[in-house]
Structure formats: structure tokens, C-alpha cells
Design goal:
single chain, 53 strands, 7-stranded antiparallel sheet, alpha+beta
């Protein structure tokens, strides 16, 4: 009995100790939140500071929530208590959660009031939102608490001016507010480096051995403890370069860090080959460093040989850098030289490290998956394979389910599989700014691509969307729409309509015609040839409404090749049933007969709906931003413009859309495509590929309306948007292009050889058989010459943008003067 009591008392003590620990943790968390939250309060008795509070003169002393005063609004004084201020220093340049709380009171139940949050940034309205109080004020003459919050991007908190106030919009009620509090708390961005955050510290006692040196850098061997790169005096440029994998085998997760062991050295003329190796139970990884005694360039080739079947989430080289960060080459092709973000996803761009006397750079890395930086930990992650760089989903065939999708972003490797990655390090170069390859030719800054899905169209709505009116049947006579404003579209089409599908249900019986298809509508087929001649890309939206046959797919692809010759494909109707277009890219297309037909007819650019179906960026837009992942939040989120999957979809290229563009009301055109939004988009050098249905026969989905005489015409807001895009296009700011043209240029850039020379110049070589027209760069420099001559150029903020043509097999020498 005594033992039982002792055991019981021990359990009580243990339980109480657990409670104490939880209370302490909760207290620490509360203190942490308070430490990082800045709150401004006004109870109208005494405020934190008077200079930023507004509308404080209209006071009521007869009805208050606390103290002696409350602020009122009425028909004469519609604007109430609030603030007007710059963002606090503690959250400048940080993604921020702005919270508003207080108490409101109304003398009627007809209270139409808003708490308005507005931000002006660089003279433009960057944000406006009215927080409705109508649903909160359910009872008259009772004080009611309210609370709401919004997320403000870092780019806005840096320079924006905030204004918050009560707006008595209805002016029929007397509405009071009291005990108002405005809080600012930094939003902690999601990290995409969590799996490498546990990088272990290596304490080694191995003696260093110099295994290579030239006039630019040295490479030191530490035996089984890896290697590092130093300058010519032996000062570190990098610490350890390690290998990391995060993968799964037989349902079990594995993560491992390892150092490379030095294996051999070989000399061939001016070149030296250093071989290192690391291995695990799943793979052997060989790292070859190809050095040259006359240049700062180090070629790194990573070879994998798999010993077991694995599913890879990430495999990467981890470079622990020792020099200070000088310049970060961002995914959008801009660069940061100060105020560095904590975490970057850099696509295949790079960075420069420098101590003002020497520098190390990694730039233009088409042979890897991507680059990431953790600037706080001085860690560069060179992704050799990373699932976020090549997202993919599939809808497997299953007669018993619907809307079931499988995330297949990870890579699958079988025993005996091999793969290879490569990139360059330029070590010991002059610490100068490097030119960055732009995403667009001819000096254009941003990219916008319209992609139309073929569903539920009629020749009348097609004419309205492209020519401005159903009555216009000739492209040269266009009065509105895409053709009038010379805006190209990647337009997908149906080839056939064997099931005689009509538009009746999809249009709520407004149109009872057959759905548009090439084979069954000669007027539609002629229309497509007209707009193709005007620069539009015409591709398949699968051959028909439901799963097709091999013969019909072959016929459709042959026709499309003959008349339109597009390499692009847009899926339609993907889902799990046998009728759900099994030839789709995200169904069985890359697994069955369809794949060989795509290759036969040159189809290689495929729409990937991953971001749409998983709603990846649904919470990362801002005030109708053109980019659905607004760049003002920062560069932490992986978001490639295109990619190849290493193992699941052959050699095909993927391109994404993030959401569907429906414009249900005329005024929304100016919300999504205002001059402010479009100028911000071009200023941020954004890329957006939309997904739309301009000719859908149902108003609110299509971009048309009925005119006064019941004629189908293009919406006025749609025409204004196209006119604005045309203007930005003529200014060489916005490249409005097609999927084919955009991806062709990106793949041409991948082939470019980029080399930093000993004297600081950069040599650009085109090793292909095709010319690259308007090859564009950006650099933070005052003057640039190409082979001694000044190229076409313009200024964009602190960047000099320049461009030139590069013939097959030719090189160009770029010299920068800061």
C-alpha cells in the first residue's frame, strides 16, 4: 500500500510538473508575441501619441464603452476615429499582420458602416479594404466588439503610408467607436529549407592538403572531411561543401548529410580533374571538379548511381560560404545588394560573395534543379533534384471515385538508374557586378500570356472576343478584342465533336448551337486560320469533349501540325473516370500511346494545373495583384515559370497557371488590370500565364456582353485592358506573348554559355545552330559595351538593360563600367 501511495504521489508530482512546464511555455510564447507585436491604442481618454490619430474631435460623453468619451459619426460627420501614419520601424520591409480591434455602437439596426484600411504607396492606392460592421451590429444601442486583420507585404510596409478610419457609409445612423487598438506583428514566412536547417557542425582534426592552385583560388583537401575553396593567400571563400538527401524507400523516410572524400587527381595539359565521392545504402555520388590553371572557372559535375529504388524529395549540395554576400541574383532577374532577405529561392540564377578584394560567384545554372539561400546561416543550397521545382499531379483511372488526385512531384529512381548535374563556380574573380540574363528578349521587363481553354464556345462569342463584335467576321476589320489591340493568345481548340455536344446547358440556354470544333464548324475553322495569321498560337484542348480514340488523336494532331504547328497542349476534362479524357497530360497521357503521338507531332509544352488544383498561391495575392504569388512578399516560395520532371513525364516541358480568370462584372476589369497594377507588375519584372475562357457562352465567364441591340460585343473593360497592355507593349515594358514564344526563348537561354573572364569581362557564347534575337541582360553598371561597341539599351531604375543578337556559334564579350 505504501508503494502504491508513493507511485500515486509521484504521478501527481509529474503531472503538476507537466502543467508548470506548459504554463511556462505559454508564458514565454505570450512574452515573445508581445515583444514582436507593436500596438497603438486610443480609449479617447489618453492615446499613445496624438500626432497620428485622426478624427478625434467628434466626441460623445453620454454613451461610452469605457471612460468618459467615445468618438461618433453621423450624417454630418461620416468619418470616424482612426490613424494616419507610416508603418512602424519595427516592421519596415517585413510581411506584417495588421490587426484592428475595438468596440462599436449604433442607435439603429440599419447600420451601413465600414472600418476602412487604405495604403498609399509612391503616390498610388496600393490597398483599400472596407471591413463591414453591418453583420456585427446585430443589436441597436449595445456596445459590440469587432476584430479583423489583413496581411501587408514587405514591399508595401517599406514605403507605404497607412490610413485607417471608420466610415459611416449609410449616414442614417449615429455610430460610435471606443477603445480602438491597431496592432502590427511580423508574419513569419514559411520556410522551404526546414529539412536542411539541422545541418550538423563538423569538428575535424584532419590536416589540410593543398591539391590545386592557380592565380585565382586554391582547393584544399581534408581527407574524409571534404574540401574547401580559398583565395590565393589561403583565406577561406567556402567552408565545407556537403551532400544532403531527403528521400523515401519502402515507405520509410531518410535524411542524411555527408562530406565528400577525396579520391583522385589527374592532370591533362592546363586542366586538372579532382574527384570526390560519398555514398549511402541508396546511392553513390561522385563529384568531379574540373579546374584550369589559367581561369577562375571551376566546372562541377555531380554523378549519381542508385543502388536501391528511392523516391527523392530533395538531393542537394550544401555550400557553407565564408565570404560576405555581395549580390543576390533573384528569380525575377532583379538583384539585391543590401537588405538581404532571410531566405531566397533563386530558380537557376545565383549570387556573388566578395570581401572587396576577391569574389566568388555562381550564376546561370541550367544544369541543376534550383538554388536557395539561407542568408542568416550563410548557406547556399544547390538543389540537384527538388520536388518543389517540378510539381506534378495525376488523376489515376478509378471508376469508383471522382476528383481524386495524387501528388507526383517527387522523383522516382530505380536500382541502376543514373543521373548527372553540372554547374560552375567562378572563384577569385574581380568583385564587380555581373550581367543577368533577362526572361524576355529585346529589353522587355515583364511577361503576360493569355491562354484560352476551348470550352463552350460559339462563333459569335469568338468573333466578339477577338474582333470586338459578332458582326465582324474579318480580322482586318476588328473593332475590339485581341486582334484589334494586337494581343496574341495561346488559344486551345477542340478538333471534333462526335457526341454533338451543344452549348445549351453551359450557357443557361442562351446559345443552343453545337460547341465549337474544327471538324464540325467550317466558319470556326476559317476563323482560327485568320487569327493564326495575326500571331495567335493555336493548339489542342484535347481532340474532343470526352476521352478520344488513338485514330482521332492522330488525325487531330496531324491537322494541327499542318495548319498551326504549335508545340503546346492544354488538357481538358481531367478526372478519374474512363470518359475523363484519359489522353490528358495529368491523366494517362505520358504513360500510354498518347506520349508517342505527342513526340511524333512535336508536342512538348504542356499545361500543368498543379498550382490551381492545390490552390498553392490562393492566399499570396495582394489587392488584385496581377501575379497570384505577389512578389512583394519576398522570394522564399519556389515558383518556376516552366520545368521538366526528372522521372515521371519523359522529356516534356511543363508550364503552370495559378488561377482561372473570370471577370463577372465590368468594373472588376479595372480592379485586376488597373494602370497601377499593370505598372507594378512590369516594375516587378513579373511573369503571369493566365487561364481564361473569353468565348464561353455564359456571361460572367466569357469576356463579352450584349449591346443595346442584342449584339454580342467585347466588354468595354476587356477592351480597355487590352489597350493598356498594347501601350505597355509599345513601351517595351510588357512582353505580351504566347506559350510557344516564351518557352522557346527560355530554352535558348539554357543553351547559352556564360563565363567570367580573368579581366572581369563576361563572355557569352551561343553554341546552338539558331540565332538568339534580342538577347537581353540587366546589370547595375553605368556603361556596357559588347565587343567594344555600345548595344541597344535603356535604364530601368538602378539597372541598365541592354540587348543584342547572337549568331550561331558566336561569342560576345561584355565589359561593364560601374
Amino acid at each position: 500500500m505504501l508503494l502504491k501511495n508513493i507511485n500515486f504521489n509521484f504521478k501527481i508530482i509529474k503531472h503538476r510538473f507537466t502543467i508548470v512546464k506548459l504554463v511556462l511555455l505559454a508564458g514565454i510564447l505570450l512574452l515573445w508575441l508581445q515583444a514582436f507585436t507593436q500596438t497603438f491604442r486610443n480609449n479617447l481618454e489618453s492615446a499613445d501619441s496624438l500626432h497620428y490619430w485622426i478624427n478625434t474631435n467628434n466626441l460623445d460623453s453620454t454613451n461610452t464603452h469605457s471612460g468618459n468619451y467615445a468618438a461618433f459619426t453621423d450624417s454630418v460627420h461620416p468619418y470616424g476615429l482612426g490613424v494616419e501614419m507610416l508603418f512602424p520601424d519595427s516592421i519596415l520591409g517585413k510581411n506584417t499582420i495588421l490587426s484592428i480591434r475595438g468596440f462599436v455602437f449604433s442607435n439603429t439596426l440599419q447600420s451601413n458602416a465600414l472600418y476602412v484600411v487604405s495604403i498609399v504607396n509612391q503616390g498610388e492606392t496600393a490597398f483599400w479594404q472596407g471591413i463591414s460592421l453591418k453583420k456585427i451590429l446585430k443589436h441597436k444601442k449595445i456596445w459590440t466588439p469587432f476584430h479583423d486583420s489583413v496581411i501587408i507585404p514587405a514591399s508595401i510596409t517599406k514605403t507605404g503610408k497607412l490610413k485607417i478610419y471608420l466610415w459611416n457609409q449609410g449616414k442614417k445612423s449615429r455610430i460610435l467607436v471606443d477603445d480602438l487598438a491597431i496592432s502590427f506583428r511580423p508574419l513569419h514566412n514559411p520556410s522551404f529549407l526546414k529539412d536542411v536547417d539541422t545541418l550538423p557542425e563538423y569538428v575535424t582534426f584532419t590536416r589540410e592538403q593543398l591539391i590545386f592552385e592557380n592565380n585565382f583560388y586554391q582547393i584544399w583537401n581534408k581527407g574524409e572531411d571534404g574540401f574547401f575553396i580559398s583565395d590565393t593567400s589561403g583565406k577561406l571563400m567556402t567552408n565545407h561543401i556537403r551532400y544532403f538527401y531527403n528521400q523515401k524507400s519502402k515507405g520509410k523516410d531518410y535524411q542524411k548529410f555527408s562530406l565528400f572524400k577525396f579520391v583522385s587527381i589527374k592532370n591533362r595539359g592546363d586542366k586538372t580533374f579532382l574527384t570526390f565521392k560519398t555514398k549511402s545504402e541508396f546511392e553513390t555520388v561522385k563529384l568531379l571538379l574540373r579546374c584550369n590553371k589559367n581561369t577562375p572557372e571551376i566546372d562541377l559535375i555531380v554523378s549519381h548511381r542508385y543502388k536501391k529504388s528511392v523516391e527523392v524529395s530533395r538531393s542537394a549540395l550544401l555550400l557553407d560560404y565564408a565570404l560576405p554576400l555581395q549580390e543576390v541574383f533573384r528569380a525575377n532577374r532583379k538583384s539585391d545588394v543590401d537588405d538581404f532577405q532571410n531566405e531566397y529561392w533563386l530558380d537557376k540564377q545565383g549570387f556573388t560573395l566578395s570581401n572587396n578584394s576577391t569574389a566568388l560567384a555562381i550564376y546561370h545554372t541550367p544544369g541543376i534543379s534550383s538554388l536557395q539561400l539561407n542568408t542568416k546561416s550563410h548557406l547556399a543550397v544547390i538543389n540537384l533534384d527538388y520536388e518543389k521545382d517540378h510539381p506534378f499531379l495525376r488523376f489515376p483511372l478509378d471508376a469508383d471515385t471522382f476528383d481524386f488526385k495524387v501528388d507526383e512531384s517527387t522523383s522516382l529512381y530505380q536500382r541502376g538508374n543514373k543521373k548527372k548535374n553540372s554547374f560552375k563556380i567562378f572563384a577569385g574573380i574581380k568583385p564587380e557586378k555581373l550581367p543577368r540574363l533577362m526572361k524576355n528578349p529585346d529589353g522587355f521587363l515583364a511577361t503576360y500570356i493569355w491562354t484560352e481553354h476551348a470550352d463552350w464556345g460559339d462563333i459569335r462569342t469568338h468573333h466578339a472576343a477577338y474582333f470586338g463584335s459578332e458582326k465582324i467576321t474579318n480580322a482586318d476589320s476588328a473593332v475590339g478584342g485581341f486582334v484589334k489591340y494586337n494581343i496574341p493568345v495561346t488559344k486551345s481548340v477542340f478538333y471534333d465533336n462526335p457526341d454533338s455536344i451543344t452549348n445549351t446547358a453551359a450557357s443557361d440556354s442562351l446559345f443552343t448551337t453545337f460547341e465549337s470544333a474544327i471538324k464540325t464548324d467550317t466558319a470556326y475553322a476559317g476563323f482560327l486560320k485568320q487569327i493564326h495569321n495575326k500571331g495567335n498560337e493555336i493548339c489542342l484542348h484535347t481532340p474532343e469533349q470526352f476521352s478520344t480514340t488513338p485514330d482521332r488523336l492522330d488525325s487531330a494532331l496531324a491537322y494541327m501540325k499542318k495548319y498551326f504547328n504549335s508545340p503546346t497542349w492544354i488538357d481538358h476534362g481531367y478526372n478519374n473516370l474512363k470518359s475523363n479524357n484519359r489522353e490528358d497530360f495529368v491523366c494517362d497521357g505520358s504513360l500510354n500511346y498518347t506520349s508517342s503521338l505527342w513526340k511524333k507531332y512535336g508536342i512538348r509544352y504542356f499545361w500543368n494545373p498543379y498550382y490551381e488544383d492545390y490552390q498553392t498561391f490562393v492566399n499570396w495575392g495582394f489587392f488584385g495583384s496581377v501575379e497570384k504569388m505577389f512578389s512583394g512578399y519576398g522570394d522564399f516560395y519556389p515558383k518556376p515559370d516552366y520545368w521538366q520532371h526528372p522521372s515521371r513525364t519523359n522529356d516534356f516541358y511543363h508550364w503552370p497557371t495559378a488561377s482561372v480568370l473570370y471577370i463577372g462584372r465590368e468594373r472588376l476589369w479595372n480592379y485586376f488590370f488597373s494602370s497601377y497594377q499593370m505598372n507594378l507588375f512590369t516594375h516587378d519584372w513579373g511573369v503571369e500565364i493566365n487561364h481564361c475562357y473569353p468565348a464561353w457562352t455564359k456571361p460572367g465567364k466569357g469576356f463579352w456582353k450584349y449591346s443595346g441591340n442584342s449584339t454580342v460585343v467585347a466588354m468595354e473593360g476587356f477592351n480597355r485592358t487590352l489597350a493598356l497592355m498594347q501601350q505597355l507593349k509599345l513601351q517595351e515594358s510588357l512582353n505580351v506573348t504566347t506559350v510557344e514564344a516564351f518557352l522557346n526563348y527560355q530554352l535558348a537561354l539554357e543553351q547559352v554559355d556564360y563565363a567570367v573572364l580573368p579581366d572581369g569581362r563576361v563572355r557569352i557564347t551561343n553554341p546552338t545552330a539558331d540565332s538568339i534575337k534580342g538577347l537581353s541582360f540587366a546589370v547595375k553598371a553605368k556603361v556596357v559595351t559588347i565587343n567594344g561597341l555600345r548595344p541597344a539599351q535603356k535604364q530601368a531604375d538602378e539597372n541598365l538593360i541592354f540587348w543584342f543578337d547572337l549568331s550561331p556559334g558566336h561569342s560576345a564579350l561584355i565589359r561593364m563600367v560601374e
